[in-house]
Amino acid sequence: MSKHIIGLILIFVAASSPPTEAQDFSGAASVGIEYYDAPSLSQYFSATTGNQTPGTYTTSVQLEAAVEYFVATDWALGIEYAYLTNQSNGNGLQIGYSYSLPTITVRRVVTGDNYYLRFGGGIGYHFSSLGQDVLAYGSTTNYSSSGLGLKFDAALDSKLGENLYARVDADARAEFTGILKTKDGTPLRIAVTSAEVNSDFSGVGIALGLVYYF
Q: Which of 2.40.160.20, 3.60.150.10, 3.40.50.720, 3.40.50.1000 is the CATH number of 3-213?
């Protein structure tokens, strides 16, 4: 989805639904861990670096920034950007991979005494990338892919100051980012089976962060 379409959506919401008196916007930043299963990537790493077992979950660092606009007392529309990164090394190879996850979100917000409780989710067009370095030759091959991704989450915001809150967030993700390919369209393959490698994954995560309500 283009930046222009996202902008039009927010303008429409702003014009049609006035914000609450207590808050108009919130901005948040968090860091956490995503525990996920990427079956095709796992098979690829097992065959190349030898340090992952197919069918097992792995852990990635997750960084996230988000802004939300309150369209009603108990509903918020937002845009967030999450970044996951990890690597796998072995057998003379160094492989780094990452996911960029921009997402439009809708959440129900329950207000309590010095806290907000939030439930919701979102959808976005997401991107993955993988760089494979052959250490003996100093050569690098880069692959990328993209596709739809879904997120569902729940968060508790606890008051620290007048407008500052601490956030604990739990999420579940499903990513359909597809076959990893070079710029010229050559797919990444598992050498033993010649199977194409995709970056699809499902996972759950937890993050800690700070939120400021304007």
A: 2.40.160.20
